[in-house]
Design brief:
It is a single chain. This protein is of the alpha/beta class and 287 residues long. It has a single domain, classed as 3-Layer(aba) Sandwich (Rossmann fold). Helix content is 28%, strand content 26%. Strand 1 and strand 2 form a beta hairpin. Helix 2 runs parallel beside helix 3. The longest helix is centred in the C-terminal third of the chain and has 11 residues.
C-alpha cells in the first residue's frame, strides 16, 4: 500500500505522445526508476552511479569497462538516455569523459534534471531532438572521434522503426573512432525475428559483432533484451571471459560463427521496409 501512495504522488510529466513519465522509488535494489506508461525505462542510484540494476544495462557497462585503459576518459554519444543511467556510469568510472546525449522529450529531460540531477561538473551535453535528426546536427569535430555510441531509444516499450535501419546505423557509425564501439539495446521475444534482423543490419555497417544476453533470451525462449556490440575493428577475444564473468548470470556472449548462424536468412532493414521493435506483453513488467 505504501508503494501505491508513493507512485500516486510521484513526480510526473506528460510526454508529446500522451504517455506519462514518472520517477518512482525502486522496489528492487534501492534507488529510483523512470517509468513511462507502465514500462520501467531506467534505474538510477544517485548514491552509487556504478550500480547498474537492469541486466542489459549491466551488460552494456561490462563492454564499456573494456574500452581503452581503465579510468581513461571517453568521448561518448548517447541516443536516448532515459534517466541518464549510462552517462552517469561513464562519468563515475571515466571522470572527465565528454558526452553528448540526444533526447526527444524536453519534458522528460526537465523531470530528470530536477529530480535526479546529474553529478556537478559532469561534461554531459543534452540536445533535444529526434535521435536520427540530432545525429545530423552534432558538431563536425565528433565525426570519427567517438569511442562509444549507445543507441537505446524507446517510445513507450518499442524502438521506433526509423531507428532500426541500415541508413540510421551508417549515420551513427560515422561518429565512431576507427576502434570505437556501437552499443545497441534490442528487445525481442520468441523466435527473435526482430533481433536477428537488427544484428544483420548492424553487421552490414560494422563487420565485427558480439551479442550479449541471458541464455534463454538468446535462444528465443522468452522476451528480453539483447545487447549488440559492434565495431569496424576486431573486438578483442580477451573480452569474452571477462564479459561472461561480469554477468548477470546465466550469461551468453555470441561471436563469430554463432553470429553468422544467428543472422542467417535475416533481411537487412532499410528505410523502406523497417518495423518498430515488438511490443512486449504487459506481464513482462509486472512488479
Amino acid at each position: 500500500m505504501g508503494r501505491g501512495r508513493d507512485e500516486a504522488s510521484a513526480p510526473s510529466v506528460r510526454l508529446s505522445d500522451g504517455t506519462a513519465a514518472r520517477i518512482v522509488r525502486s522496489a528492487f535494489g534501492g534507488g529510483w526508476e523512470l517509468d513511462v506508461d507502465g514500462t520501467p525505462q531506467s534505474h538510477v542510484d544517485l548514491d552509487d552511479p556504478t550500480h547498474l540494476h537492469f541486466e542489459y544495462v549491466a551488460r552494456m557497462g561490462a563492454v564499456i569497462d573494456r574500452l581503452r585503459m581503465p579510468r581513461q576518459p571517453l568521448t561518448a554519444i548517447h541516443l536516448g538516455a532515459g534517466a541518464m543511467t549510462i552517462p552517469r556510469y561513464v562519468e563515475a568510472t571515466r571522470p572527465g569523459s565528454r558526452q553528448q546525449v540526444i533526447e526527444l522529450e524536453p519534458a522528460l529531460w526537465d523531470l530528470v534534471r530536477e529530480h535526479l540531477p546529474l553529478p556537478r561538473g559532469a561534461q554531459i551535453r543534452v540536445r533535444i531532438a529526434d535521435a536520427r535528426e540530432g545525429l545530423g546536427r552534432l558538431p563536425a569535430g565528433l565525426v570519427g572521434a567517438a569511442d562509444l555510441v549507445v543507441s537505446d531509444v524507446y517510445s513507450g516499450a518499442q524502438t521506433p522503426a526509423h531507428l532500426t535501419t541500415v541508413e540510421f546505423y551508417r549515420e551513427a557509425a560515422r561518429y565512431l573512432a576507427p576502434d570505437g564501439v556501437l552499443l545497441v539495446n534490442v528487445a525481442d521475444g520468441a523466435g527473435l525475428a526482430f533481433a536477428r534482423r537488427q544484428a544483420a543490419t548492424i553487421g552490414a555497417v560494422l563487420e565485427n559483432i558480439v551479442i550479449l544476453a541471458e541464455v534463454q533470451t538468446l535462444k528465443g525462449r522468452r522476451f528480453g533484451n539483447l545487447v549488440i556490440a559492434a565495431s569496424r575493428a576486431p573486438l578483442p577475444t580477451e573480452w569474452l571471459p571477462r564479459l561472461m564473468a561480469a554477468g548477470p548470470h546465466p550469461a551468453k556472449v555470441a561471436q563469430g560463427a554463432e553470429v553468422v548462424e544467428f543472422t542467417r536468412g535475416a533481411r537487412i532493414a532499410t528505410d523502406g521496409d523497417s518495423t518498430a521493435s515488438p511490443k512486449p506483453a504487459a506481464s513482462v513488467f509486472d512488479r
